[in-house]
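Look at one such:
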Amino acid sequence: MDLESVIAAGGLLVAMATTLIAWGQLRRTPNASERPADSGAPRGILRPPTGRLPAQVRGRSEILGVLRALAQRPDQAVHLLGGLGGTGKTTIALQIADERLSAGCDVWWVSGAEAHSLFSDLMSLAQSLGATAQDVEAVSQGRRDPADLLWRFLESRNGWLLVIDNVDDPHTLSRHGRAVQDNSGWIRPTSAGLILVTSRNSDPLAWGRHVTPHTVGWLPAEQGARILCDFAPRAGSFQEARDLSDRLGGLPLALHHAGLHLTSPFNPERSFTSYAQALTERFPQLMAVGADDRSIVRSTWRLTLDALVANGHPSAGAQMRVLARLAGGVPFPCELLDHEVFARGCGLDDGTRSAAGLRALAHTGLITLGSSGSGAETLTVHPLVVEILRLDDDEPDRHENVCLDLLAAAVARLEFRNPEHSPAWSSFLPHLAELLQAKASHGDDPSLAQAAEVAEKIAAALGWNSRYFTASQLIEETLKATARLGDEHPVVLSLRLVQAQTTRLLGDPGSAERIVREVLVFRERSLGADGPGTLATRHELGLCLAGQGKTATAEEQYREVIRRRHATLGADHPDTLIARAVLAHLHSRTSELLDEAERECRDVHADQSRILGSDHPDTLVTRKRIAAVLHRQGRLTAAEDEYQAVLPGLVRGFGVEHGHVLSTRYELAKILLERGRRRTARKRLEELGPIQRRVLGTDHPGTLKTERALAELRSAG
C-alpha cells in the first residue's frame, strides 16, 4: 500500500473509531470491560436480509449440500461463492444463513462492497461480542489491530456463520499491510465457525490458499423454468417457461425480473410467450429494470468491467466486447485463441497481457471456462452478456473485425486432413454464422471477403471429415451472405468449387459438373489455363465426369491436367502425382487396361511413398486403388489382403466415417460375399449401412449398393 493510501486508511480508521467509541459508551455497562467473551451476543446485530429469499432456491442443491455440511463442521477454510454477476451468489448465502438462524446459531451478515461500511460493521460485531470502549479506543489510536480484536472473540465461540457479501474487490478485506491472500486480516482460517464470502472475483491468487472457491454458474433451462413457474404459475406451459429460461440464458437475475414482470397487473405481458416476444421488441428497456446497478441486468456487468480496469486491466472492456462477437453460450477452444492477434486488436502490447486479461475475465465469470468432449479447454460467454455488450458497443465494426481475425487465426492453426481436429472445425460454425450475418448487414464491408474465406476453409475441412450435409449448408448460407461480392470474386469461386466437391461426394456428380464448368470459365479468364486454381477446377471436373461414367472424357481431362501440372509444378509435385493416380484408376475400368492400370498405380504409389511418405493420405488412397485393380482382376485373396492392410491407415488419416473408409469396408464385404462367406459379409454390411445412411444419405449410390446387397442376402435366406 502506498503512503497516500495509508494516510487515507488511517483517517478513515480514526473517524470510524471515534464514532464507535461514542456509540459504545452510550451502551456501556459498568462491568463491560470484564464481560465474559462467551456471553450471548445480540442476535439482532447484522441480521441477514432473509426477506429477499425466494420461496424455494432452485437448481443449487449440490452447492447448498456442501455448505450445509461445512456450516455444521467447518474445515478451517474460508469459502468463496464466485462467478458472474446475477447468478445468485447472494441467494445461496442467504439460504444457508436462514437455515442457520432457524437452527438457533449466531449468523452475521456484512456488506463487503466498501471498506468504510465493512470496518464499521465488523467493529460493531466485535463490540456485540464483548469488545469494550477501551478496546475500541486502542484500535483508534493504532495500538491494536481491529481484525485481531474481532478474532479474539470469534475464536472463543463455536457454530457461527459470518457472511461477507459482495466483496468484488478483495483489497477491501486488506488490513494494515496484510493482504487478503495472507488470510491473517479480516478473514482467517478457522474451525470455530464458517466464513462465507460472495464475490465476482474468484481468482485463487487474489484470495490465498486458505480460501476455497465455489463457482456459481447460470442455471439449466429446466431449473430456470421452475423459477419462472414459481413466480407465475398461470403464465403458460412448462415448455414455454423452459423456452423463456433458455432465451434468458438461465441467469437467475434475469429470471427474477421476468417473474416479477409477469406478476405485475400493470404490465401487458402476462405470459411466458408474450414476455419472450417483448424481449425481441424492447430488450434494452426490459434489461434496464432494477433498483441499482447491481440488480439491473444491463448494468451489473459494467461494475465488474470497471473493477477490472481499476485493478490493472485497462483493456478488459475491449476484450469482452470482442468476445461478445462470438456466439453466446457456445464454447470456443482456448488453445486456438491467438493471443498476439487478440492483443493487437485490443490495444495491448503483447500476447502475455492478453492472456492475463482473459484470466481476469474468467475469474470474474464474464467468460466461463469448461472442456469439450475431447477434454480440450474452452471459453464461453453467457448469451445475455453477449446481447448486453453488443447493445452498448460504441465500436461494433472494430470489435467484429478483431473477432473475425481471431477466428481466421484459429482456422489457420488446424489441419483439415487431421481427424483429431474434426470437432474443432464444427465448433466454429455458430461463431462464423454470427460474424457472417453481421458482415452481410454492413453494406460494403471489406471484411466480408475475409469471413467468406474462413467459411470456405471450414466447409472444405467439413467435407474432408465426412460432414457433407453440414458443409453443403454452410456453403449455401455463405454464398447468400456474400452475393454482393459477385460471381467472379475469387473467394466465391473457391466456395462454389467446394460446393461442387460436396455435391459430387453426396452422390450427384451431374449437378456438380454444372457448377464446376461455371467456375472453370471464370478461372480460365482470370487465372489463365495453367493457373493452379484452374487446374484444380479441371481436376474436379474429371472426377465429376468419372462419377457419371463418362470415362473417356474424364481421361482427356486428366491427361491435360497432368501435362500442364508437369510443366508448371513439376513431376514430383503432389498435385501432379494425384492426377496420375486418378488417371490410372480410370484405366482400371477398362478390362483390357487392367494390367496397365495396376502398373501405373504401383508406379504412382512408389513415387508418393518416396516423396510424401507411406502414411500420407494421397499415398494411402493410391494403395486402395491398387486393391481395387486386384479385385477387378479377380485376385480376391490379394485384393482382400491389400484392403485389410490399407484400412487402418485410412482410418488414421481420414477418420472412421470418411468416404474412403466406408467404400473400403464395402469392398471387403463384397469380397467376402464373392468368396462364399455370406454370414460374415452380411454382418459387415449390416454394420456399414446405418453409418452410410447417416453420413452419405439414403439416396447416395454407396448407401444404395449396400442396401441392394443386403436385400439379396436376405431374400436368399
Observations:
- The longest helix spans residues 3-27.
- Confidence is low (pLDDT under 50) at residues 1-43.
- The CA atoms of residues 545 and 554 lie 5 Å apart.
